[in-house]
Amino acid sequence: MINRTLVRTKVVQTLFASFGGSDHTTLSARKTLLNKFSSTYNLYIMLLRFADELTTFAEAQISENKKRAQVLHQPYTANRNFVNNRIAQQVFNHRRVRNHMDDAHLSWDTGMLAVESAYKQLQEMGFYKEFMILEVPSYEDEKALWRKIYGMLLDSDYLSSALDEMEVALDQEGWTTDIDMVLTYVVKTIRHMREEDGDEWELLDMFASEKELEFAKNLLQWSIEQADENKELIASALENWEADRVAYMDQIILLVALAEIRNCNEIALEISMNEYIEIAKEYSSDKSYVFINGVLNRIVKDLKAANKLFKFASR
To answer: Torsions phi, psi of 2, nearest 5?
Structure first.
């Protein structure tokens, strides 16, 4: 699940906090980085479990409506298309999901307001109304419904607010910044679910391979151990600008970018540079990406001229 794009972002975030504190050893920074990865994976599990939480809430609403109808002596026939969906049941029954929730002490208790808000919004959505009038929804109908529900959550303020509170309550971090990306992984997971797999459907691992974890550890180590060397390269590349005037986040992004460019030869130069320019667009000031692009280009040009750069170009 965690790819190199996310690894780069988390290394930048880790060093931003680490270099600004009193303890920025490789050991402590690595622990912080791994905790960030764990928090991201916890969010993935939590958002998957949202399917069961929303379905359970809908079931509770049917029970309340039934009781109200009985008190008023009115007929009531519940439409159970949604509450009977097999996707939520498969999520609830998945052993790894349940064990992870228990082991990491995760719960939606603090975020139930988001569940309620999502259900209210869902009832007004055209795709939900179309699903509810189906005579017998197929498994593929249910998968399509959940992909649309998670798409609805992408633009919801209530989910962001709930995750903000849940980060504190559950001792997590990065949930509100990772939500869009993690939701895409949840949708990908649902897309690949099959009814015949029952409760043993495929859950994404934290890392797709050991290579991604190794890349993360190496990138962090290079960034810390070569920080002084790379600061000198940055200072020499600045034109009419003093190094101590460079924004702190921009310094961190440049340090990590140079660590990758100088050490990770198997990744094309353009890919490395573009990745950190995108990070600057997301996490730094409006014009920072232009500044970072310029500085990196000057440093790369100098390293090439001195035969100190062996990274290949993608074209």
So the answer is: -80, 115
**Which 3 state secondary structure label does DSSP give 84?**
coil
CA-nearest of 108, 111, 120 to 45 is 108
Sorted by sequence, the CB contacts under 8 Å of residue 57 that are 6+ apart come out as 112, 115, 116, 119
In 3-state terms the chain splits into helix, strand, coil percentages (rounded to 5) of 70, 0, 25
Residue type, 107: S
Dist. CA 211–CA 215, nearest whole Å: 6
Beta bridge partners of 2: 207
Dist. CA 191–CA 178, nearest whole Å: 20
pLDDT one-digit tens code per residue, 96-150:
999 999 999 999 999 999 999 999 999 999 999 999 999 999 999 999 999 999 9
Cα angle value 267/187/130 (rounded, 5°) = 150
- CA gap 285, 249 in Å, rounded: 9
CATH of 226-305, picked from 3.40.1010.10, 2.40.400.10, 1.10.940.10, 3.40.190.10, is: 1.10.940.10
Q: Domain coordinates of the chain in residue numbers? A: 23-197, 226-305
List pLDDT tens digits, range 176-225.
Answer: 999 999 999 999 999 999 999 999 999 999 998 889 999 999 999 999 99
In this structure, what token pair is assigned to residue 286? 């409006």
Beta carbons within 8 Å of 3's beta carbon, 6+ residues apart: 208, 212
